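Running this now, will post back.
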Amino acid sequence: MSALNKYFSQLEPIIRSLPDKPGVYQYFDDKNRIIYVGKAKNLKKRVSSYFVKITSISGKVQMLVRKIADIKYIVVATEQDALLLENNLIKKYRPHYNVSLKDDKTFPWICIKNEPFPRVFSTRTVIRDGSQYFGPYANVRLMHTLLDLTRQLYPIRNCNLKLTGKNISGGKFRVCLEFHIGNCKGPCENKQSPGEYDQSIAAIKDIIKGNISSVARQLKELMMKYADELEFEKAHIVKEKLELLDKYQSKSTIVNPSINDVDVFSIIADGLTAYVNYLKVMNGAIIQVHTIELQKKLDETPEELLSIAITDIRQRFESNSPEIILPFMPDFEMPGISYVIPKIGDKRKLLDLSERNVRYYQLEKERQKDLVDPEHKSKRVLDTMMKDLRMPELPVHIECFDNSNIQGSFPVAAMVCFKNVKPDKSEYRHFNIKTVEGPDDFASMEEIIYRRYKRLLDDEKPLPQLIVVDGGKGQLSSALTSLEKLGLKGKITIIGIAKKLEEIYYPNDPLPMYLDKKSETLRVIQQLRDEAHRFGITHHRKQREKATLAPQLMEIDGIGYTLNQKLLWKFKSVKNIRTASLPELQETIGNAKGQVVWEHFHPKDATG
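Update: finished.
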């Protein structure tokens, strides 16, 4: 506290003078560098919170506070202004302790040029010359699809000519090939009037904005007009355009078309990284899709991360949608904006779609990291398992046990071992049940757990961090009894997995835990369980087969397990083997071994 008090005494006059108004605060270090930028509904309360009960805040925030040498602030009119200013300052100064937005791409825009007979084209450079820009488009394919659609519906020029009225009337230009193949109507030779051209541009704007229904309505009216005037060829051309528009719309619309001008956001905040997905919906059609990655610095909450992402994305895509669909309420308000947290219906479907997109994006990012750094996947899965299973340490060493018996015969058990989420077959073990008679899975589990960890303790070998028992509460309770006898209760995390519903049981907890069916934690546990079952069944099968071998054959020198089986498969019984001819035996197991077996059953013939 003494070090902190030194800083607090220096900053106290500034903190006391802060206003009770919304704004943005900036923390500077002793070299006058901005190290953190934050927004606040109330500047005085927010900044003071960093210095009150300092020991209760996280270590990362304490480290930030220790480095604060000066505080500056900017008062703004509304909370929304604070959000926008915070976003701009973070982008400009990139402070060390602020969330990093991992998105340095320059996305393309659709430009409608400010000129006579405007051109429509894609560009990555925005020039403030009065031209209109739509986007940016994170999905470049969607942008090109839109451009292709508009060009097919409304042929407009793509040349760089200065089509002023004076130049056109002076006959400076001649139509080019684009006119002759139908891609342009020749405004350069006054074959298309400015009014008709502007109507096409207005329709193109509607399509880009997602107002496809209004364009379709205009085309239908035009088609009916041509049909009434018996201009069927023109009506057919318009009909083809309508079909093209319907085809595009059928691919885009995923919900009720009445859902108009809506932003959808979803978030996954896992570890030090968060991902936020954004969908822009117009008339039920998705016209923008984008996902960003955020690197946490000060243990920011999902609410804080979502507010940062919403501000950045809406500003970048110039969205003024009056409605935002979210998975939960953010930690800020925006005037004129309504938040919707849907539970059912079409808006819930939109949120589900956004959540699937952000999940796929996260998986793709993880795959890329795994390819670059194979050990990254193991570390990530171990971190996830530790979190999901509420463990105090990473489950680097996991052991899983399974009993295997059929109607109580030949009771055996198996243990498999995973290290760093990979099978370590050198540590696999089989157990023949010694103290239990009959089919008693609980007693068998108690025996093998005791034998396994008694041996590890005696040999002073490392213990696992996680034990998985194939079975429900009964098997888990039996295993726990053995750990208690060995003094290991509470020192190793132990769980049971029940096959029917993949329920996870903990000691002394009557209610099971259900993991997400797609979670990596459950997949690893299932892999352990299945591997233990396979390994146990293999051992059990060998025990059964050995028990069914003929003891008379096992007495013959040189005739082991494999040849014993071959003879029984061929001749069905020892009696038939005894009466088989020498050539038959040699054909089955070879000349030398066949001779040995024949001599064993015919000693007089062999010697005489």
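DSSP finds 22 helices and 19 strands in the chain. More later if anyone needs it.
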